[in-house]
Structures are given as C-alpha cells and as structure tokens.
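Re: export button greyed out
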Amino acid sequence: MKKMEDMLLRREAFSEVVMGNTAIVRAMVEAGTRVVSSYPGSPTPEIALAIQSIPKNDRPFYFEFSTNEKVATELAYGAAVNGHLSTVFFKSVGLNVAADTFVQLSLMNIIGGMVVVLGDDPGANSSQNEQDNRHYARMSYTPVLEPADPDEVYRFYLEAARLSQTLRMPVILRLTTHVCHAKERVAFGSWSPVQPDDTPRFDPANGPYIPLTTHAIEMKRAALARLEQVRQRAEETELNRFIDNGNRLRGVITMGLSFLSLMDVLDGAAAQPDILKLAYVHPLPRKKIVRFLSSHQEIKVLEELDDVVENQIKAIAFDLQLPVKIFGKTQPEDWIGEYTPDKVHQVLYATWPDMVQPAPTSEAEDPAPHRPPQMCPGCGHRSAFHAIKQALAPTDITVADIGCHTLGFLPPYEIGQLLMCMGASTAMASGLRLFNTSRKVVAFMGDSTFFHAALPGIINAIFNHHPITLILMENGTTAMTGHQDNPASGKNFNEETDKIPVRQVLEGLGIKHIAEVDTYQQAKLAELVVEATSIDEFSVVIARHPCMLKFTREQRKNSTYQQKHVTIDQGVCERIHTCIGAFGCPTFTRDTEGNVTINTDLCIGDGSCIQTCPTKAIIPAGKKDKGGAA
Amino acid sequence: MKAFSIYLTGVGGQGIGLISEIILRAADHAGHPVKSVDTHGLAQRGGIVVSQIRIGDKIFSPIIPAGQADLVISLERHEAFRAAGTALKDKGCLIYYNTVWQPLSVRLNQTAEIEESYIQDLCRARGIQVISVFHADLPDIRMQNMAMLSEIHRHRMIPDIDLEHYQTAMADLMSGTMLAENRALFDKRLTA
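Workaround output, generated via the alternate export path:
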C-alpha cells in the first residue's frame, strides 16, 4: 500500500496520483511552511487528513484545528509576524467568520509570509451559499491565485508562498470544490529539509502593527503599493497562460475550473478562439489584458459566479477607449452554479452561436425519486428529534444551527425551521421571542458550534433575559465534516487534552436551568423539554451521546465486535408505520403491501427505534450475524 | 486512447470512493491520461455520492457532460436508474449492484420503488447494455464494490485496462487482511 506520509515527505522529485487537497500539503512541505491552522469545513477537510498521515514528530510544520476560522487566522498571523511562513485554510463561508481579522492582514508587514487557502463552493454543494470570495480580496487589497486542477494547486501554492514571503503580505489561494476533490497525476519537486530557524523575530520596528489613527492611512497606502508590486509579478509570470489559436477576431479570458470546461467544449469547435487563462485573478495583469483586448475584436469573459474580473476588464477597455466588444454576464443564471462543461457550453453558445453546436438547453429529467441527505442509521439526533417533536406544540418555533442536526428540517421531523450560520441559533431565537408569548422558541446547537461562535449569543440571552430554550446536542465531535475533535472531545489534533465541559461552561455563565439526559432516552428527554420550555427564563437541555457513526466505526475495529440489528415481528406489527413515517430511520424498508422490513445493510442495532413502536413489534434480532472485517 | 467517461454513483457509505480510486489508478497504471473528481456534498448522511472518471488524451475537465458517460457504475438500484436517465449516453453500458436503499419518499409511500423492470425497459429503449450484479453470499456488505469491480473487469467494460493494472491499483490502496480479502473476492468472481 502506498503510504501518503512517505509521498508527502519524499526527498527526491516524483509524480503521484493525488487529489487537490493532498497536492497542497506536499507544496506546504516543499515551501518550508512552518505553521498551518484551520477550522474544518467542506471542501477542505481532506487537507487535514493528508497532514494527519504524517506522524506528529515527522511533520515539518505545526498544525492545529483552531476553535473557529477567525482564531485560526489570528494564530497563523501571529506566527507569521514572528517570522514563520504560515497558512490558514477553511471553507468559503469561513471567511465571513475570519473577516474581522482577515481584512486587516494586508495592512501588516507579515515578515514570514502567510497564505490564506479558501475552499469556495460554486454550486453550494455543502455550504449555505455560493459566495464569491474574490469580493473580499478586492475589498482588502489581497492578491488571489486561482488554480484549475491538482497540478496547479501544487504549483500555485508554491507561487503564493514565495510571493507572500517576498512582499511580506497575505496571499489568497482560492480553491473551489471540484478543484479540491479532483484527482490526477501531479509531478512534484524534490524536498531538502532544512533545520528551521525558530528564532522569534517579532519586532515592532517592522510595523506599525497598530492600525490606528494616522497609521491606518499610511498602512493602507503601503498595502496598495504592495498590490502594485504583485501586479508587476502577474504581468511577468508564465502562470498566466496565453493560448494562441491564431484567432484575431475572438478571444476568451477565463480562469480556474471554467478554463478546463472551456477546453472540453471547444474540442471540435469551428474557429478556436485565443485564450488568456489567468492564474492571478487579483490584481489583474493589466498590460497583458490590454494586449489581448487590443488584438481581438470580440472578447468573452468566462467567469464562474460573480462578474468580478469582467467589470475590471470592461473598465480597462473603457478607460483606453479600446475598440473591442466585451461579452460578459447577461442573465441571472450566468451568476449561478458551477461552470461545468455543460454550463460553459450554454454560455458560449449564447455568446457565439456559430462557434459551437447548440447546447442542450435542459438536462434530462431525473427519473428516480429524490434522495435528500439524512441522518445516519442509529443517529442520536433522530432519536432526540422524535422525542422533542412530542414535547412541542405545532406552532412552536424551532431554530437550527450548523451541523448534522440541521438535517432535522427535513420530513418527517421538520424541526429547525430557520438556519443562518455557525452559532446563530440562540440569538435568532431570542429575537423570535420578543413580543411573542404564545409560541415557544427553541434553539438547537452542537458542541463544536458551541465553542466556535455560539457563546456571544448564549451570553446575550442570559444578559438580556431572553426566555428561550437551548437544546445542546452534544456528541463530542465535529461530525458533519468528518469527526474532527473539538474542545469538548478530550483530544486536539496533536494530543490528549482536558475536555472543556459544556455543562460547566454554562454553569459558569450563571444559567440556573440546565437539564441533562442521554440522547436516546426519549421519554425523559421529552419530559425535560416540556419542563424547560415552561420556565420563563433562559434554559438549557443537554442531550448527550457520542456520535453513533463514530462510535460504531470504533467498535468495528475491535476484533470481538459482533454486528447486530433489529428485526420486525411480523405477527405483532400492525402496519401503523410510526417507524417509517415518524421516526424515519433509513433502515426501515416498505414493500408494496405496506409490510415493513429491516435493511440489514444499514441497521446498526442501536435499538433506539424499539421504544418508538406502539405495538412493540421491533425487537433485537435473535441470531447474531457474522461480523465483517473488510 | 479515445476519450472514455465513467460515471460512478451510489449512496454514502457504499464504498464508491474506493472503487473509483482503484479504477482511476488502474487507468493510470495502464498508461492512460486520466482525471477524476468526487462529489460527496453531505453524502456521508445518506445522500448520493458521485465520482466521475475521464480517460483519454484530450481530456481537460474531470466533469462529464450530462448524458455523455460511456459507462455508468452504480452500487444501488435507484441510483442506477437515475444515472442511466441523466448521465449515460444512448448505447452506453450500465452495471449496477442490485440492492435497494430506499429513498425517503419511497419509505414514506409517496413515490414507488424503482423496480428492475424499469431499468430493463429504459435500457432496451436506448440500446444500453445492462448488467445487474448481486451476490447473496458476500461476507461483508462493504465488499459489494469489489464484487462489482470484478464483474467490470470480467466483462472488459473499461477498454485497455488489464488485470494487472487493477491488481496493482488495489495494492496501492489497501494492505494486510483488507487487501487479501478483497483480492480473494475480486479473483474468485473473475473465474466464477
């Protein structure tokens, strides 16, 4: 078996089949990156998996999962002004959390260099929006490099690191979901480990590092000057590619994954346009663009999500009064979704119908029943929602937060009717409670989110006397993104730690009404929720159980593990269908006659369903099945 | 080689990632330019997992245009029907593991379960070659993917990839008992 850690630390140059999220870790090693931090979020968690493959003592850099993206950014910044090349990575919306710190970074003289790796998510595959983080880059005068595939992820990280070290400024490497998760053979360079010089080099004389009063203006001036130096580099670099197809009529300016889609769509096209493929998407290589605009009569700016580059190019053409027709986005759909080959085909055909064959206007209709994501078989959240639903009136308002429990909004539970972002539930619930005495308001929260961003909202509810109930679904992990440890886990990325106990934190805040129950004790949980929601003060119910998916996976590693499941006593079952209709574990299967059976591929035998059957027809399977060991 | 596009699908937890990476690496070991991309979204929570592989000299994006896959590999019957309807080209090939993980609306009796005959009818109408795989005697459901891989090679569903390439790819990704058991199943089905 090929070991990832061997590959990541190989001394000689080599090539290997890797995903974008692995390629970047080899680049970190080769670049001499010394400090890396993150908060987990798709599409980036596999970067940490690759890092984790390297034993802690062999890891050439420090890595941690911080409590949130802002903290991770501040940590990386602190290390960088002490002289260490640092990197922080997180998902698209993570930048909103980090923004208060992030927007200041370009003002600072970051002597060690700092790369900010963003996992943007066009198509909103696993995010609450598809925000285009290039807007933040423009707002904060921060350069952006945008790779299209794993090979470019590797090479562009090296470029970003060098640029950042040379100009002592933050540089964004903007990845997107299908760049992170694409796989291909990548040629890597050699690596000669050097003994790091860990002298703490922070010196206020390198500053100012205090962006106040007149300093702030001077610092902005310096940031803009640095950005112009980056523009110079962008003019010279061969990372910005010009593909000369000898077309003096038409050209396309594009970047990232859109470029790959374009190349596929143009396969077999009549007159191929010239292509300017940008690596630096901020700041733009102005001279290069002017040359491209001047040498063509028609230009298409092919750009995923927002018209960030398009507007700048149009401004250049306007200022110089260039006689070129520039085609950009024309209809709302052009702003939406990933620029897949199909999408690019449609966009290109709409621009130049004589260049490519007509694009299929709509995809074939999906003939199969929709399959929404849902909670795992045996999930504690399902058990809890089933109980909580019985404790609330249909008119009560339930507010979700980010995490696996968010999926409770789907049928049959429909608990969690509003969602915003990490940690937002308590304060939104507080607002929903104002002038509202007839409908109870219940907020939900997981433990990783609790430490990430929930505390200000909770403290506000105490401070300003908002009589809502918070249900903390404590499963001891960050389950949705792949079971990363959090402060309540008893482990961080590198070592065992003391758990920071959620309950004692809440007690320390002075909350008087805190109840606690095992997630799977449905009757008790329902009773506690009824009690908590009838109190006219802020109250908390902690529903606690380790994440069942993680728990079962760990048990399976044990050689004595016996797979178990439940079964339906068909003689007792009265086809009431509470198990399917209300409890809704995916294990339950319905045949055309309405009989219920168990899908033993799915059932983990936790037995949380047994208490939900009015006729007691669900029973533990009598015979033990042979456990698998694949 | 001429471009060949493979669309793999199934439900989170079925092992699509592993079978996809074996095929990706087997194509690479066979000397073909190849790219892939996984789309898993929230799939760990019982949603759909898709992996796309494109083999050939003039491939840029790993994403296959709708209705242009040469081969669909599905580890579940509903997803086989879905992918045959949306991803597969006319006269392409479909191979699926004939197990059912009912989607929510089927369990709630709002939509009908996809039956084998629906798939047969669809494939007949569009000239699609279809192979249904099911083994009642697998030691572990997590080996369904390997049973499928074995059938894929037995029927030479992916051009210009030989046995040794699959075997080397498996050895890249697995070791010890896991490799031995999966190899044993793979080899056994080849000759069955």
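Residues 176-191 of chain B form the longest helix (16 residues). The button fix ships in the next patch.
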